[in-house]
Amino acid sequence: MTDRFDIQLLEKAAQFLASMDPKAREKVLFNMRKAQVTNDAELLKKLTEHIWEFRTQYAGLQYRFLAFWVKRSGQRALIIATHGFSKKTQKTPSRELDHALQMRNRYLKDHG
């Protein structure tokens, strides 16, 4: 199967991923790769007009990486993960959504 998009982790997302338990990290990376080839809202879900989340559940915790899309002419679409966090409830905290949107705006301003 062909990847539908590329994934890039911003520094905060990469740092959170590196800090995770190795088995949880492996599951998150597996789910991100799986989301690249399948259309499954359990793995990649739209939260707002601009923010999406990669979703993984492992060992009773829910791991989330918030992300946004970037269209590139002549290339596959790119989804950029801004940061990650773990949670125990279903609802994504509004402060996490706000943070992802701020990071998206900064990225788009810096990368035109």
Name given to the CATH homologous superfamily: RelE-like
Structural class: alpha+beta
Topology-level CATH name: YaeB-like fold
Overall 3D shape: globular
Structural description of this entry:
With 112 residues, this protein is α+β, with helices and mostly antiparallel strands. It has one domain (5-110): 2-Layer Sandwich (YaeB-like fold), CATH 3.30.2310. It is built from three helices and five strands. It has helices spanning 11-19, 22-37, 94-110, and strands at residues 5-9, 44-46, 52-58, 61-70, 77-87. Strands 1-5-4-3-2 form a five-stranded mixed β-sheet. The model has no long low-confidence stretch (mean pLDDT 94).
Notable features of this structure?
112 residues; alpha+beta; YaeB-like fold; 3 helices
Short synopsis of the structure:
The chain has 112 residues and is of the alpha+beta class. Helix content is 38%, strand content 32%. The chain has one domain (5-110): YaeB-like fold (2-Layer Sandwich).
